[in-house]
Amino acid sequence: MGQRRTTEHARNAGLEQLLAELNAVLGGAESGMHELPAEPAHPIILVVAAPRSGTTLFMQWLAGTGQVCYPSNLLSRFYAAPYLGARIQQLIADPRFNFKDELADASSYTIPFTSLLGKTKGLLQPNEFWYFWRRFIPNMEPEWITPEQEALIDTVGFRRGIAHIQCAFDKPFAAKGLILQYNLTALHRMLGKVLFVHIAREPWRAAHSLLRARMTYYGDEGAWYSAKPPEYEVLKECEPAEQVAGQVICTQAAIERQFAELPDACHLTVGFDAFRNDPAALYRRIGERIVGLGGSWDPLYTGPHEFELREVPLEPSLEERLRRACARFQGIVPQLS
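RE: above sequence
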């Protein structure tokens, strides 16, 4: 049995039941829409990173550019019928369909850059889309899976689901790819025209944020939170500060090792501070890659020019422990692997 969540982060059993009921009906309806495409028509953007590295901010920013379609909090509730969910979202929130301001409060919605442990609030805010991913893959959590487990992935269904979303919006699809970020070569084989964006935060700061996330989510600094890198069995025996340092370093190293095996055109790495200090530069870099993959991208950037970040202060002794732990793992990751 997994660690018990705090009350604030507990599941809503009634909502789970309602969504299961709706998706059972709508999923069957969508599967009968044979005119929908089976293959994505546009490139796909998947962001990967160690936990607490800024992927939610990245997705909020990317969604706000208007250049991509993405899993919103509303769309995520139609995980078995993504095309119908997308069309329902357009009916509710697209200004083109706001007849005489009947749905003005939804169609005028803008995306704020706020979240709590990756969880956003708002109709059109980005969602992690776990229920959609879990329909097609054998793992429930972000972790490395074996080649035998990779063979169980429903590649046809996964591609079809993304194709349905793209069909509704006629744009590249963007999402977090954390749940399969330790199996990127398999993801690349599955998706073809995919761009992986690695957000690399300063390791000790990501590690500190992970410690705080453990307390917020579980009320226990010793409870494992989020992604499990290939070295998880070794890391789980360490004390908490060592665990989070290793979690960050091993994840960043795993992503970069996989990037080395992929074509240069399908991946890029950006530091979190570089992204928040100059998002326009990243916009241009992504645009160049998307165009290179056969997609379209507006060269005019109209988004924010920087993001302010208030780092949570921490005791000098803890900062030193985290820095030392990160440095130690940076020196031994190849041996652990």
